[in-house]
Fold this protein.
Amino acid sequence: IFFFSGRRRHTRYISVTGVQTCALPISEQVYLTIDADGLDPSVIPGTGTPEPGGFSYRQVVELVRRLGRRRKVIAADITEVVKIAGTQVSEYTAARIAEKIILYCA
């Protein structure tokens, strides 16, 4: 997980197998961006660069929940969602994640 504080880029690591610990940015105000490429393709198949072994939906929701409890999220976005003809699963899942961001971080 990368985050920016002012002009500096920081890197924090979390457990991918389970959200056991979550390193948080030093700043109290954060901008949250979720790149759909980081989620497993079984969760969001419509993305520019699918990443097998990526985050599950529940892991992302848990990270959002923990972040919202500990930091002030001043803005957020979800990127790299690509339309797949004949299905809306990627868009629907991204919308559900956006809903959780509003629920836990507003």
